[in-house]
Sequence to fold (176 residues):
Amino acid sequence: MRRLLTAFLVATTALTALPGLADPRHDDQKEDKWEKKENKRERKAYKEEQKEDRHYWKDHDKAEKKHWQEQEKEGREHRSHRYDNDDDRGDEHGRRQLAPPWMNGYWHSGETRRYVALVPGDPSRMYVFVDGRWMLREVRDPRARLDLEGAYRLPMVAPPIAPPRLGVNLHIVLFN
Fold:
């Protein structure tokens, strides 16, 4: 039994020592070096690609931020429509007032007398006189509401047809 055990121990020791003693082939080392170099190139290319991506998105974010800043600046630069403009003077009836440009779509192109009834205390609603009747228009744009608030400085006129009765006196303005 002792001999069998000794032989078994010698065989296991020899088998475990053989791979450690074996000299790696020269070609295997070259392949390992090439693989390492290739992996290094791939990692470098990946890092460069990531760097370019970061630069692209950084520039994109800057451009987008600039765009929205310009949009905000344009919104702040809005000036309400001027009703006391010296160029709007008419010969016959004293002052001639022009409607703000955003209102031009409410009337037909041939109409020269454009009546607007403003609701006091509510700059989001107004009545427009079109085709012999008063039509309600709601204004959602805060810049246009500034124009309507400024229109209260204009003198009231008598309309051709009485405006709707709302329980408040409407401020009726004529734009020529």
Notes: The chain is about 45% helix and 10% strand. Helices lie at 2-21, 26-76, 142-150.
